[in-house]
Amino acid sequence: MKETRFRVPRKKQPFFSLVKLLLRPFYRKPKLLLAEPLQEKCILVANHSAKSGPMGLELYLPLFSVKWGAHEMLEGYSARRKYLKEVFYMQKMGYGRVRAGAIAAFEAVFSKMVYRGVKVIASYPDARLIRTLRQSEKVLSENVAVVVFPENSDGGYFEEMTEFHPGFVLLAQYYLEKTGEDLPVYPCYYHTKKHIMAVGKAESANALLARGMTKEEVAAHFKDRVNALFREFCK
Q1: CB 223 within 8 A of CB 80
Q2: Is 61 helix (H, G, I), strand (E, B) or coil?
Q3: CA angle, corner 191, sides to 186 and 196, nearest 5?
Q4: Is the pLDDT of residue 1 over 50?
Q5: How far apart are CA 175 and CA 204, in angstroms?
Q6: pLDDT confidence of residue 116
Q7: How far apart are CA 131 and CA 45, in angstroms?
Q8: Helix or strand or coil: residue 126?
Q9: pLDDT tens digit string along 25-47?
Q10: First to last CA, the chain
């Protein structure tokens, strides 16, 4: 499988720093609730908060991080427009075809720049996920956090999530196998309307696997922990 050369994103992004300044008025600063100090090198699993999560965390999470995101959004204009229209706006957000098509055609023009600005690694639903894991290992080895939005949003976005995909569990396994280092995994809940960002205590996904849990069960465990943050601080 051929891979393009990957470089760990830099903290200094002069142009996108200006973009973030322009976006801040649309993303009110949330109340930050940390159960403990955050380690720089970690995996953080969060809800997508409809379309606000990635940018909200980019603006206000006190960690320099790289995020997993749909691979289509880092491809050509046609792929981005199709994904935005048919998957994101129609399937996930519930928009009608005309409205979804108009918004997608507009957003697809600049969305790749935004994705690069919030530092996204393309994630895949198939064997190409190994590419995501390799790039994530490189990021983590530079003491940069990786943020994953693992909720199954095929039927839409909900305040309490019903399922987490286990890709982040595979990342924790992969990094341990490659480096011998067991990464902390933090649960995070971001509520756009109530302006709250809560991060719970870290836990080892590999320790849960060692206790006999499957990858799916570990993913469900972290889903429950993220939902618990919602119930405690946002409900």
Answers
A1: no
A2: coil
A3: 75
A4: no
A5: 12
A6: 83
A7: 19
A8: coil
A9: 888 999 999 999 999 999 999 99
A10: 45
Q: In this model, does residue 12 exceed pLDDT 80?
A: no
d(CA 118, CA 61): 12
DSSP line for 105-164: HHHHHHHHHHHHHTTEEEE-SSTTHHHHHHHHHHHHHTT-EEEE--B--TT---SS-S-B
Question: CA 225 to CA 209: how far, in whole Å?
Answer: 16
Dmax over Cα atoms in the chain, in whole Å? 51
Structure tokens at 121: 């690694």
> Around Cβ 84, how many Cβ atoms within 10 Å?
24
pLDDT band at residue 3 under the 50/70/90 scheme: low
Residues 6+ away with beta carbon under 8 Å from 128:
1, 71
Specify whether the CB–CB gap between 62 and 38 falls below 8 A: yes
Long-range contacts of 96-103, Cβ-Cβ distance < 8 Å, separation of 24 or more: none
Position 106, amino acid: F
> Do 232 and 219 contact (CB within 8 A), yes or no?
no
Which pair of tokens denotes residue 49? 């908060």
What's the token pair of residue 50?
Answer: 């409809």
Question: For 156-195, what is each residue's pLDDT tens digit?
Answer: 899 999 999 999 999 999 999 999 999 999 999 999 999 9
**Would you tell me how many other CB atoms lie within 10 Å of the CB of residue 37?**
7
Say how many residues make up the chain: 235
